[in-house]
Automatic annotation (TrEMBL):
Residue stretches making up the HTH luxR-type domain: 133-198
SUPFAM superfamilies membership: C-terminal effector domain of the bipartite response regulators (SSF46894), CheY-like (SSF52172)
Modified residues (4-aspartylphosphate): 54
The protein's name in its UniProt record: DNA-binding response regulator
TM regions (residue ranges): none
Pfam families to which the protein is assigned, alphabetical: GerE, Response_reg
InterPro entries: CheY-like_superfamily (IPR011006), Sig_transdc_resp-reg_C-effctor (IPR016032), Sig_transdc_resp-reg_receiver (IPR001789), Tscrpt_reg_LuxR_C (IPR000792), WalR-like (IPR039420)
Source organism (scientific name): Deinococcus metalli
Domain Response regulatory: 3-119
Molecular function, one GO term: DNA binding
Keywords attached to this entry: DNA-binding, Phosphoprotein
Length: 200
């Protein structure tokens, strides 16, 4: 049996995934979690064969969760199942160690097959997304991404500096670099462009 942990913040989707995967003879859903932090705690306790996670989740994102699992639970493979069909998200997911990346509108049989393939040591990635992922490369550094993410929510330079433990001048420099790299006029436009590309 392939033991699966599901991380999904929408209860209805979590229930549906559990029900669908439980119909497969060789798959067993051993647990579910409504956010990334709870998923990490359950992964440590259960040590599943495969963790299926969304990207956008409360407390800890699916990408951060995938990175932790790759570092500290190498026996657990990660499959991302999300609504974000953007190449930038796929690249970041693969960079942090995810072995599969599927969209939520894929048929249930594709998810089951992806779990089997990833468990066997392979990869399971939507081919259209894979082609798109290597079109535009993400020009942002991790720190520029953090600063833009905070700016996207309308935070002031002072608030961003306080949150990230940086000086206001340093925050302005990061914002200026990100705006320049993205060919934007303002921090809001830069954040929107980065979000659309899947880089935030």
């Amino acid at each position: 049996m392939i033991r699966i942990l599901l991380a999904e913040d929408q209860a209805l989707v979590l229930g549906a995934l559990t029900a669908l995967l439980s119909l497969e003879d060789d798959l067993e859903v051993v647990g579910g979690a409504p956010d990334g932090e709870a998923a990490w705690e359950r992964a440590l306790a259960l040590k599943p064969d495969v963790l299926v996670t969304d990207i956008e989740m409360p407390r800890v994102s699916g990408l951060d969760l995938a990175a932790r699992v790759a570092r500290e639970l190498p026996g657990t493979r990660v499959v991302i199942v999300t609504t974000f069909g953007r190449g930038g998200y796929l690249r970041r997911a693969l960079d942090v160690g995810a072995r599969g990346y599927l969209l939520k509108d894929a048929p249930a049989s594709e998810l089951a097959d992806a779990i089997r393939r990833v468990h066997a040591g392979g990869r399971a990635i939507d081919p259209q997304l894979a082609a798109e992922a290597w079109g535009d490369s993400d020009p942002l550094t991790d720190r520029e991404r953090q600063v833009l993410r905070a700016a996207e929510g309308g935070a002031s330079t002072a608030a961003i500096a306080a949150t990230l433990g940086l000086s206001e001048g340093t925050v302005r420099n990061y914002l200026s670099e990100a705006i320049g790299k993205l060919g934007a006029e303002t921090r809001v436009e830069a954040a929107r462009t980065a979000r659309e590309k899947g880089w935030l």
